[in-house]
Amino acid sequence: MLRLPHLAACSLLCLGSIGCDAADRTAAAQRPGPVITAAAPAVERAVCVLYPIGNSGVTGTIHFTRQSDGVAITGTISGLSPGKHGFHVHEFGDLTDGGAGKSAGGHFNPTNKPHGRPEDAERHVGDLGNVVADESGQATINLRDRVIRLDGPHSIIGRGLVVHVGEDKFTQPVGDAGDRAAVGVIGIAGPPAKE
After folding, report:
1. Starting from the edge strand earliest in sequence, which strands make up the sheet with 180-188, in order?
2. Is 10 helix (H, G, I), strand (E, B) or coil?
3. How far apart are CA 89 and CA 100, in angstroms?
4. Cα separation, 169 vs 129, whole angstroms
5. pTM for the complete prediction?
């Protein structure tokens, strides 16, 4: 027959072993082990819907498609004044400042280069030059860029796309294109619609 002190000692041993076992399981769960990750598929297409800043009335849809020599950029923008308008990828896909569009930050420039034309060797990654609106205020975009990417360190995914009120004059530090007329966030696009 077990006496009370023996029963208490047995209980402590059992509780102690349960506690140790739980502690051992917790420690084992926290030990680093091999991390197995699957490679994400390459982004082939992206899209950006442009929204007016303030009451500019400028809207549009821009498509980005991976090509062997860069990225094709196509789409239309409407509501512009006739002429040239700065067209840049900006740092942030932040649309919280709908009045001025400043929440999109500055030009996307991860390489810390000076502002330039799309064909320049030294330029911001986000420098896409100008779009040209016709007399009706519509710009049809059909460009190819060799610097922007849909993945990697020059990826434009999740960043802002800005159309400016004025022309990018390619002056320093950012081209003097004036206020922002429209902004959108560049996102991964689904597969093309089947016809």
Report:
1. 127-133, 83-90, 160-164, 180-188, 45-52, 59-67, 70-78, 139-145
2. helix
3. 16
4. 9
5. 0.78
pLDDT higher than 70, residue 66: yes
Enter the tokens of residue 17.
Answer: 């072993």
The rounded distance, in Å, linking the Cα atoms of 19 and 114 is 62
- Between 181 and 31, where is the model more confident? 181
Please identify every residue annotated as catalytic: 88, 90, 107, 115, 124, 127, 164, 180
What per-residue confidence (pLDDT) applies to 59? 98
Strand bridging mode 139-145 / 70-78:
antiparallel
φ and ψ at residue 13, rounded to 5 degrees: -65, -45
CB 149 within 8 A of CB 74: no
Cβ–Cβ under 8 Å, residues 182 and 86: no
Q: What angle do CA 66, 177, 112 make, to 5 degrees?
A: 60
